[in-house]
Design a protein that fits this description.
Layout (H helix, E strand, L loop, with lengths): L3 H9 L15 H29 L2 H4 L2 H30 L5 H33 L7 H19 L1 H4 L6 E4 L5 E4 L5 H37 L5 H38 L9 H25 L1 H10 L2 H45 L6 H11 L4 H9 L1
Antiparallel strand pairs: 1-2
Helix pairs in contact: 2-4, 2-10, 2-11, 4-5, 4-10, 5-6, 5-8, 8-9, 9-10, 10-11, 12-13, 13-14
Length: 390
């Protein structure tokens, strides 16, 4: 017999009971999205513990706040991956969310984990900003208090739908079979929760851009005024570009993985509800892609994390990665050497031509001089054209 809660729940989701839920396995597109999300959730169970272990076994890393916060992100991503494995494992096995209780639980845990991770990203950016721009250090206790308070607050908000039986906010079954917070039905108390989520995402994304942009321009100003030596300036400019690339990748990856969901949150208060299996599938996929790839992104962009991960990885994998990296480094070095040699040859040729012109007191036409320079640099088409005209 269907309970009162299930009847109320069904009224929100299309007037069906749990025995009548559609089987997403019968739709090829929804099934593919569910399989891909499930695979990336499993991969997240591999990448996140690897980086977490690499940080915890290194004494220097685990004593630094920045790496502690990265480890905290790994914990959140690991929990998100576990949740994804359970949710989409059930979806693939049963064809949809198996029960009303499971829907209420996942509808509470998903946004709670996501918004806690948002807060951690923001605290990491703020920690770097205070250190590099203000020459201050963020106390570890303050950082954890911020994250803890935000986590508790968002857990209370995300549980409103389950506690109030849909009176304030509600959880709905998406077209990919997962259950998540819904909106867009024109009910203010339902969309109130989504407005909070969306405003917080907008604040976090804006502050991330502000903090990392401030760091970049501050370092550019400091490096630019530090010396007039050309070689030193070239090195500092290279460092600036590297920093800008790192911060851009972190920020853009975060925003790109969550923007689709947040656009729907923005539209919900205006009674706009978009129901599309590809959009729902992309939201679930990008969420678990973010959790799986976060450790990879941080490891690629940080030399210390790369070295720490290599120390905890199995020996055959470490050996293979080292050989591949060495081959790539050798090719890059040979290419740089070749380019430098070509530049030196072109410069020497140009200087020799100018010296010969001065010695013989002959004026070389500008077009001819440019043609010779192009020959020295490897482009001789214009030289032959001038030669034929002559």
């Amino acid at each position: 017999m269907v309970s009162a809660d299930q009847i109320a729940f069904a009224a929100l989701y299309g007037n069906y009971t749990w025995g009548e839920l559609p089987d997403i396995r019968e739709d090829t597109s929804s099934l593919i999205w569910a399989i891909m999300t499930f695979i990336f959730a499993i991969l997240g169970l591999v990448t996140t513990p690897l980086l977490l272990r690499a940080i915890t076994i290194d004494k220097k890393m685990r004593s630094q706040l920045s790496f502690q916060l990265v480890a905290l992100i790994c914990v959140g991503d690991f929990l998100m991956s576990i949740l994804g494995c359970v949710v989409f494992g059930c979806v693939l096995f049963y064809g949809n969310t198996p029960s009303f209780m499971v829907c209420q639980i996942t509808g509470t845990v998903y946004p709670w984990l996501a918004l806690t991770l948002f807060t951690t990203y923001l605290v990491i950016a703020y920690d770097r900003w205070t250190l590099l721009c203000k020459s201050k250090t963020l106390p570890g206790k303050s950082a954890y208090n911020i994250i803890g308070c935000a986590s508790v607050s968002f857990f209370c908000i995300s549980s409103l739908a389950a506690v109030t039986n849909g009176a304030v906010g509600y959880n709905e079954i998406k077209l990919n079979g997962a259950c998540f917070v819904g909106g867009g039905k024109g009910v203010p108390m339902h969309d109130f929760v989504l407005v909070i989520y969306d405003m917080y995402f907008a604040v976090v994304a804006t502050l991330l851009v502000f903090f990392y942009a401030s760091i970049y321009y501050h370092m550019k100003k400091v490096f630019g005024n530090s010396t007039t030596d050309r070689e030193v300036l070239a090195k500092t400019q290279k460092t600036q570009k590297k920093i800008a690339l790192q911060f851009s990748i972190i920020t853009l990856f975060f925003i790109s993985c969550w923007t689709i969901l947040c656009i729907l949150w923005v539209l919900s208060p205006f009674s706009v509800k978009i129901e599309n299996k590809h959009i729902d599938g992309a939201i679930g996929f990008s969420c678990h892609l973010n959790s799986m790839a976060n450790p990879i992104v941080y490891s690629v962009l940080n030399k210390k994390l790369r070295e720490a991960i290599l120390n905890v990885m199995p020996t055959p994998i470490t050996t293979w990665l080292t050989k591949a990296a060495n081959k790539t480094a050798i090719k890059s070095q040979s290419l740089r050497t070749s380019l430098k040699s070509n530049k030196k040859t072109a410069k020497a040729t140009k200087e020799a031509v100018e010296a010969a012109a001065r010695a013989t007191s002959k004026i070389i036409p500008l077009e001819m001089s440019n043609s010779i320079t192009e020959v020295a640099e490897g482009s001789n088409a214009s030289f032959f054209e001038h030669k034929e005209d002559k």
